[in-house]
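Example with several molecule types.
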Amino acid sequence: MNHLASKRNLWFTISLIVIVPGLVALIFSGLKLGIDFTGGSLWEIHFDQPTRPEQIESALNGAGIEHAIVQHSGPATDETYLIRMPEVGEGSAQKTALEQALKTEIGPFTELEFSTVGGALSSEIRNRAILAVAIASIGILLYMAYAFRNTQNPMLYGMSALVAMLHDVLVVLGVFSILGLLFNVQIDALFITALLTVIGFSVHDTIVVFDRIRENLAKNQGDSFEHVVDYSLAQTIVRSLNTSMTVIFTLLALVLFGGGSTRMFVLALLIGTISGTYSSIFNASQLLVAWENGEIQNLFRRITRRQPSSIAPAS
Amino acid sequence: MRTRTSLTLIFIIVLGLMAGWVALPGSNFDIAGFRAAHPVREGLDLQGGLQVVLQAKPVAGQTLDGETLEGTRQTLERRVNGLGVSEPLIQTRGSDQIIIELPGIENPQDAIQILQQTALLEIIDPQGQYLPQGTLVNTTLGPAEDATGSSAATPAASPAAAGSATPVAGIQSPSGPVYETIISGADLKDAYVTTGATGMNQVVGFELQGDASSKFFQYTSSHLGQPMSIVIDKQVISSPSINGAISSQGIIEGVPPTEVENMVIQLKAGALGVPLEVVQSRTVGPTLGRDSLDKSIFAGVVGLAIVALFMILYYRLPGVVSVVALLIYTAITFAIFKVVPITLTLAGIAGFILSIGMAVDANVLIFSRTKEDLRNGKTLSQAVESGFTHAWPSIRDSNITTMITTFILYLFGSYTGTSIITGFALTLFIGVVVSMFTAITVTRTLLRVVVAAGLTNESWWFGARHAAVAPAVPSPR
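Resulting structure tokens for the full complex:
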């Protein structure tokens, strides 16, 4: 535990192993976007008697909705279904027709939830979501640079925290891309909320570690940077784990016992929190060391040096 | 120092009791109706209801300004009030949207139709009176309740003039006379801003279609010099006098210059000022909401219990202190939710529960530092003070970044029209602020009291002598 920094390449590799599968899924199939981002309607209904998704689909098809996706909302024995379909207005004649079709072909049902988002609005939400994540990142970077203004390299701390944060965002996005592929899990505006919270938590965690490094650097000026980072980590690791543990406990309770409509939201928070804890100890601080030791600069130099030779035309 | 600590302790106890009293569920132990007046405000997803975002779609040539949108909002508010929903929310959003939340509404489909319908425009025969603006009237096309749903019909309309009106059979007017409708919105072909006879002032011009023009000609020629009333949604918006016989084209003079534009828009688009289109709607059934609330509360209690258990097992005496601090934190936060009031949504509850975890963090930071300083040979009371001083920068910096995030979340939420997201951001923000407060005052004071009371001089109680718990810390020279 005392020499975490010396194994930094191992920690980076572990991160890569976690991120790469999700990243591949993200690149090749992306995320399954919910109606908040694509427009459309989401309908959750509960039938009094047993039925099957295919039956609901055919009933809707008969009423003019061709591309409805019907899923069980909870366990298969619970007759609650989630229907995703093109935009249908609340209170419109079309909706009344759909209700009628379901009632006559399957039986009476209770409407639990019905949401509709117009196409134009959904693209606005998408743009704002990207903007929100971007502004949050910049705001945090600036605050970090301010909070660490008395160190030799304030931007280094901000950038390292940012990379660790990006790590957590990629982990969450990757997992949800895979979940989308396997279980057709869609992301909605609430997912963006989770993502922004993860960003906040990740930096929250990183700052506590950085804060200790800052303090120890001032106290022990003769030590090597790597050594200072090492014992700063040793001093904070228990606190990091304990804090994350309490957050994870509360989130686990929410995933297990909380209502179904926020389950995916809390799951995103949970994954982000675990990743955030890992990245603040094993990525952010290690990046500081790698930069101070010139390893990152070397890596860049190697890349840029190799490039001209491969691009140069054979003359 | 002693007296200050005891004063703070008294303050904390009083604050804790007050917050606990407000936060308590139900409405027992009420004083002067305060608790009854501040119930938990449940969001749509908890109590069920309807949320609609309406997008203004200006008619050709119409420019949408803040005033028009606000006027439309007020009209919608009047209609909503007729639906009998408690605590409805009708807000303008951005420059061209209106957001409506109707908690607990039983018939969302009907509500949407009532909100969206273009209002009825009528020109009525006011029986020679100059009906004041805002008067609710019954007309031959229907009584006032039809449009507004309110039973407060025609408070200002004088019943004296009832007589020559020709009520259509079957329509009962509970109070006030029934005025004859000469022209309705369907007869109107166009409305525009034009200049009056003198060419100096702006007036409202209008054009009628086919059949209506002959009917209107008959009426205006027989009522020269008398007033007529323009009525929208059974509410008089203007009572100009008839200066000449009008057939297909006419002007309305005497409208205040600032009102001309508005009236043209009202004539064209109906009382909504601007046509509206539903771009987003969300209906939550009451059963789902109740179910979610129960589950979330259960999850919250379980989460809190596990955290409390963990803290006590790991940090012993300080753990107990932190659990007390945590309970006070929970009470204060929940009391704030009730008093402000903050609308509680599912995501908001999640934010609240998440902030419990974060509130513990400040305690963990303080305790870790205290433990370290004990090991470095400080006395218990010294370690408590230095532990706090050392932990403070981390607590401050980490919480400020969370505040930055919640602030941006709030902006994002208010633009995407989801009270779910703004609710989450608000609860998390309040949680972070209160947790900083409880860490600074409650945890510190309680620790001081525990130490000062001589409850223990044993640093074991702070978990500092137990080798198995302590991490190996390389001595920073």
